[in-house]
Prior knowledge:
By secondary structure, the chain is α/β, with parallel strands linked by helices. 38% of the residues lie in helices and 20% in strands. Strands 1, 2, 3, 4, 5, 6, 7, 8 and 9 form a 9-stranded mixed β-sheet that branches. Helix 2 links the parallel strand 1 (30-36) and strand 2. It is elongated, with a radius of gyration of 22 Å.
Amino acid sequence: MAKAFLAFVFLAVCLAVLPLLVGDGREGRETVNIIGSTSIQPFAELLAEEFNRKSTAWYVEVQGGGSTAGIQALANGLADIGTCSRCLKKEECDEFRPVVIARDGLAIVVHPSNPVMGLSLSQLRRIFNGGISNWSEAGGADRPVRPITREEGSGTRESFMSLVMGKERVSRRALVQESNGAVKELVKGDPSAIGYMSLGLVGEDLKTLPVDGVEPTAANVAMGKYKLLRSFYFVLKGDPGPGAGEFIEFVLSEEGQGRLKAEGLTTVR
């Protein structure tokens, strides 16, 4: 019994010390910090993982926080690359340079049980400004509509406001969430909910709705048929450092663009 206990203690100590001995794989490499859009974050993480396996000089670390947070981090010297899922504002264009890495559709998502088969742009706008409050007004069941939107500073929200809302405001009744993942979880669990998120992150748990009769597919985004589309940007302040430059070169390479295409995005090559 005592021997078994000692063996257990020895194993526990080894497991605790092993990470300190092995490290996280970045020893001897300089870090390239990427901060910004939660829509771009999972794609940037996939690319960084592949890049980090190959690079002996640089280690790319990716964080979220939102498009505006990414640009602020870049301005303050906390990031080497900011990620942004909206167009740069006029005042930002004077200081920063955007690099398009991919294009993405803005998918309108509902619970799989929702019988609605599509919405017009006008209906979508009225749902989010509060003009339509029951699904029966849009060809659905007699149940209240629960719109879910993104937080201020989100590039996804700003794209939605530009592409859908125009001068209209989102209703105060809309539930505000801080990431694509949070929107996804809420819609997945609520038959009355409707939200918007990156097409490349929808997966199989949600139902996407055609807008003005056009399905939100990567092919329709690539051909420009699906109108709710936006670009994904890496944002730079001045010329990139050597590590950031190598990573951008990898992302825009055939290999990097192939990885993005496999994840459902439209490539820029």
